[in-house]
């Protein structure tokens, strides 16, 4: 039986490959270029919409603020891990960020406790084997005072957990790990700039593109997560932060702007660590 010409044309159109823009997700919440972990991941962005910004790269952008006030951001780790997987993921992001802060401050004595916590969280998320390998390398590198290797292992921990979560069809949790790392990094860096303000240091935290990315990222989470009260509040704060961070042509950042960003980042930390009851 011959198909009508019009129907044949429609079928042919449906079989055509998607345009480059469609494949690459041109309008899909692009990751800021300097937060992509490596060229291989950059190549995958077109087919892997789950790739999240690297926490290691987030800290690389803050090198001009070193040393960061680690002691001011010390968090007492809860005795019990959360039961909700979204809470596990975002707290794991905080833990990985803690690792970068510890390494930068040269507090190698804290690496053993960090490695233990990373292992517990990785196991709870279903990525225990991957995290165990990195935890062992973290301990070895800490003993040998290999700072660069410690940073590589922390970044690799995030990447490996992300891969496991995508394989388990839990890609939203990969985004939450990255979000937790950024919220922690922003809070600490805003505190550092507030304590020692200069316009040059302040410019390092004026990243409206990153705030944009996470605003859209939170909105795109599955409703079970995005409609939680704390995540809706986080999205509102992130949207407001974006406006605080925008600098018009030749505008110089002020201490008042930095103080507001620090205030809002304090709220983000509180909301991010608010566990599901």
UniProtKB/TrEMBL annotation:
Keywords: Coiled coil, Signal. Residues 1-20 form the signal peptide. Residues 140-171 form a coiled coil. This is Uncharacterized protein.
């Amino acid at each position: 039986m011959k198909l009508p010409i019009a129907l044949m044309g429609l079928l042919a159109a449906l079989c055509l490959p998607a345009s480059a823009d469609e494949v690459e997700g041109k309008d899909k919440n692009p990751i800021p270029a300097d937060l992509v972990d490596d060229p291989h991941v950059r190549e995958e962005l077109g087919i892997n919409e789950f790739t999240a910004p690297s926490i290691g790269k987030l800290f690389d952008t803050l090198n001009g603020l070193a040393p960061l006030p680690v002691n001011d951001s010390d968090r007492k780790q809860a005795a019990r891990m959360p039961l909700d997987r979204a809470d596990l993921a975002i707290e794991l992001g905080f833990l990985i960020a803690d690792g970068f802060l510890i390494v930068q401050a040269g507090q190698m004595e804290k690496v053993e406790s960090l490695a233990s916590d990373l292992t517990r969280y990785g196991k709870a998320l279903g990525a225990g084997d991957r995290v165990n390998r990195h935890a062992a390398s973290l301990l070895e590198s800490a003993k040998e005072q290999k700072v660069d290797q410690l940073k590589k292992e922390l970044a690799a921990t995030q990447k490996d957990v992300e891969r496991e979560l995508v394989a388990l069809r839990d890609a939203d949790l990969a985004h939450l790990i990255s979000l937790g790392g950024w919220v922690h990094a922003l809070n600490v860096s805003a505190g550092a700039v507030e304590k020692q303000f200069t316009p040059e240091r302040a410019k390092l935290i004026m990243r409206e593109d990153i705030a944009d990315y996470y605003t859209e990222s939170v909105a795109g989470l599955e409703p079970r997560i995005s409609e939680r009260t704390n995540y809706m509040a986080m999205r509102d704060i992130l949207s407001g932060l974006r406006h605080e961070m925008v600098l018009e042509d030749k505008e110089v950042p002020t201490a008042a702007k930095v103080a507001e960003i620090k205030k809002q980042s304090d709220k983000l930390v509180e909301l991010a660590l608010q566990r599901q009851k």
